[in-house]
Amino acid sequence: MEDWVKLESFDRPHQAEIRKVILEQNNINAVVINAKDSLFLIGEYELYVHKDDEKMAHAIIEEFQGLTKIDSFILRKPLEEFKDFLLSKGINSSIKICSNPRYVLDNYELYVSSDDIEKAMPYITGEKLEGWSLLETCLRTRQTRFRVELLEEKHIPTIVIKKRDAQYMKAEIDIYVKTADLENARQVINDLIGWIKIEQYPMLHRAEIRENLLGNHGIRSIIVKNNNEYELYVECNNEEKAISIINDKKEWKKVNTYNSQVEADYATALLEKYGIEAISITRLDRDFMFDVDLYVEEFNAENANEILTNINIK
C-alpha cells in the first residue's frame, strides 16, 4: 500500500473499525487490514491512513482515546434514556454533539469508556435491557425519528439502538419502550391518529422515493408495511400538499448504485448543480452489505447518466 502508513494495531477487529469510523467522520480515509495468521489466528488488526493524513489522524484518535461510541441518533432524548439506564448498571457514559455536516442524521453520539465496552455490550445489543421491550425495527434514521416523535407526543420515553454488523456498518435501528408502555406504544404506532394514508406501493423503494421527496419539502411521512404493500402516511393537515408534490413527480428511474453514502451525496449534489433533482435510497443487498441507489426523474435519466459518466463517478 504505497503512500499509506500504519496508524495503530489492535487485538480485536471492532477496536480498529470503531477508530476507522471516527476518522471517516472527520473526512480521513482509513483502511483496516487483518494481519492475523489464517491458520493460527495470531497477529493484529492494523489501521492505515494516507501518509498526508497521518498527523491529523493521530490528533483525532488521541481526542477520542479511551472512549468508544456505542450509539448515535438525530434526537437527544432516546440517548439520554439509554445513558440513564447504563448509569443504573454502573456504567458511566457521555453524550457528544456531532458537528460534521456529512453526518447530520447522527447529531448526538453516546460514548462509554473503552474499558467498559465489554460490560456494556449486552445492553448495546438489547439483550439485557431489563424493563424495556423492543417495539419496532427500522432501516432508516428518518423513519425511526418520526416514530420516536409520535411516541414523545404521547409522553412515552424511548431508547434507540443502532445494531451494526461485523464491519461496523449500520444494519438496523431498534426502538425500545418501557415494558409497561409497550401496548400503549403499539396502539400509537398502529392508529396513527392525525395521519392519513395517501398512497401505497408494491415495493419499498417506491415508497422511500416519495418519503424522501416529501421530506425535501418539509413534510413528515411514515411508511407502514401492510401485508405485501407499503403504505405512505402524512399528517392530515399536509394531505393536499403532499398529494400535489407526489403527482408532480410521477416517474423515477435508477441511474447508478454506490457503495457509500458519501459517493451518493456527491453525485446528488453534482446533478442538482445541473438542475437535476436526485434522491438516494440506502438498501441491504443479499449479503447484508449496504448499497445506495441513486434515482432521478425518468425524463432526466439520460442527461444524468451523461453527467456522471463525464465526471467519472459512474
The structural class is alpha+beta
Order of helix and strand elements from N to C terminus: EHEEHEHEEHEHEEHEHEEHEHEEH
Q: Beta-sheet strand percentage?
A: 25-35%
- The coarse overall form would be flat
> What separation lies between the terminal Cα atoms?
25 Å
Task: Compute the average pLDDT.
Answer: 83
According to DSSP, the number of beta strands is: 15
Q: Tell me the major beta sheet.
A: 3 strands, antiparallel
Bin the helical content. Answer: 25-40%
Low-confidence stretches: 37-43, 100-104, 165-170
Give me the number of helical elements: 10
What spatial order of strands do you see in the largest sheet?
1-3-2
Query: Nearest-angstrom radius of gyration?
Result: 21 Å
Secondary structure: elements and pairs:
Layout: E1 4-10, H1 13-25, E2 30-34, E3 45-50, H2 54-64, E4 67-73, H3 77-88, E5 93-97, E6 108-113, H4 117-124, E7 132-138, H5 141-153, E8 158-164, E9 170-178, H6 182-191, E10 195-201, H7 204-216, E11 221-226, E12 229-235, H8 239-248, E13 252-258, H9 261-273, E14 278-284, E15 290-297, H10 301-310
Antiparallel strand pairs: 1-3, 2-3, 4-6, 5-6, 7-9, 8-9, 10-12, 11-12, 13-15, 14-15
